[in-house]
Design a protein that fits this description.
It is a single chain. The protein is an all-beta fold and about 240 residues long. It has a single domain, classed as Sortase, Chain: A. It is about 0% helix and about 45% strand. The strands form 5 sheets. Strands 1, 6, 7, 8, 9, 10, 13, 14, 15 and 16 form a 10-stranded mixed sheet that branches.
């Protein structure tokens, strides 16, 4: 692992959602390459089933009730520190079991087989870094610092707020699938794109950049209760298998 910024502890843990095949596939982020018209670069992602939502007790801190954020499709992403405000698409799986790639390099996508932002578990949003056309939506992602704010609006009107805890870079052969796609009972959101050295021979970046965030608050469409919100439960995730 080659850290870009190491500030705060990102959430990790192998307990919050089911991986049904044990095979991890890679999804794409675009990059600049002379003569290439649509070259895509892999980001690690697990193969999972959408029918694994369960419930478990929420953690109550002192006497403050944990707000319940209902499962609702995220529709927009806002990151003030890099002047980013964009709509979100929804990503699932391709027929071969790999995670889908956003069709638009200017629009990131939420991985719908995980929790929605604000639910217990690790929500993941993936986006392109660049292409032959120029900068992609997540080109400036690497510039984020611990303490920067990330906001996701949901279809039901809720707005979820997160704070960046770390920005790290990993070679694709050492992508931390467990750290990115699972949690230890906390509410987290990870933003993923490509980065590092660009290999002109293969037309791929050699690394991935991951922005780790932690839940801060939610407004509207939330109800403070001390009961169990939906969570993602899972056994340990296997290591990522690179796709060339």
């Amino acid at each position: 692992m080659t850290p870009v910024t190491r500030s705060g502890a990102a959430r990790s843990g192998p307990h919050r959602w089911w991986v049904v095949t044990g095979v991890l596939a890679l999804v794409g982020g675009c990059c600049i390459a002379v003569g290439l018209q649509d070259h895509r670069h892999p980001l690690a992602g697990p193969v999972v089933a959408p029918s694994t939502l369960t419930t478990a007790p929420a953690t109550i801190v002192g006497t403050i009730p944990v707000p319940v954020v209902a499962r609702s499709v995220p529709v927009s992403l806002r990151v003030p520190a890099i002047a980013l405000s964009v709509p979100l698409s929804t990503l699932g799986l391709n027929r071969d079991g790999t995670v889908q790639v956003p069709d638009n390099i200017q629009e990131p996508g939420w991985f719908r087989l995980g929790p929605t932002p604000g639910q217990i578990g690790s929500a993941v949003i993936l986006g392109h870094v660049d292409s032959y056309q120029g900068e992609g939506v997540f080109f400036q992602l690497r510039a984020l610092l611990a303490g920067d704010q990330v906001q996701v609006s949901l279809r039901d009107g809720a707005v979820t707020n997160f704070v960046v805890t770390a920005v790290d870079m990993y070679t694709k052969t050492q992508f931390p699938a467990q750290r990115v796609y699972t949690s230890d009972g906390h509410r987290t959101l990870q933003l993923v794109t490509c980065g590092g050295t660009f290999d002109t021979a293969t037309g791929h970046y050699l690394s991935n950049i991951v922005v780790f965030t932690s839940f801060v608050s939610a407004t509207a469409a939330t109800t403070p209760v001390a009961t169990a919100p939906p969570v993602i439960a899972a056994p340990p995730v296997t290591t990522a298998t690179p796709v060339v």
